[in-house]
């Protein structure tokens, strides 16, 4: 396996974290330290040698400056397009070297909202 290959056992979210960490030229110990977990625990999670707890995943995401957002599957492409529109075309997946998110349908507002009604902002974190 070459140094850029992703281990077969790694889960998709940790594949993205690994690619993002490498793109930012960070070491596993840098992310682990910032996340408050051991380097060994991070290495096992990233390499697919362990099935980490959700708290480990969330801590690693926070250490890399990511916010985990849950969205209905049928809206995932729209959510990614919205994030890209607010972030200069960049999503976590694109930072990890994956293909850009599909663009929102032409019916989606270019200003970045979903739907035509007002939004309450409840539960919203700035991008």
Automatic annotation (TrEMBL):
Region Disordered: what ranges?
Answer: 92-127
Query: Could you tell me the superkingdom of the organism this chain comes from?
Result: Bacteria
Q: Gene3D superfamilies from the xrefs?
A: lambda repressor-like DNA-binding domains
HTH cro/C1-type domain ranges (all copies): 17-71
Recorded hits in InterPro entries, A to Z, give: Cro/C1-type_HTH, Lambda_DNA-bd_dom_sf
* One term of GO molecular function: DNA binding
Q: Which PROSITE patterns match?
A: HTH_CROC1
Extract the CDD domains matched here.
HTH_XRE (cd00093)
Q: List all Low complexity biased stretches.
A: 92-111
Pfam families (UniProt xref):
HTH_31
What protein name applies here? Xre family transcriptional regulator
Q: Which organism is it from?
A: Cupriavidus agavae
According to the entry, what is the taxonomic lineage of the organism?
Answer: Bacteria, Pseudomonadati, Pseudomonadota, Betaproteobacteria, Burkholderiales
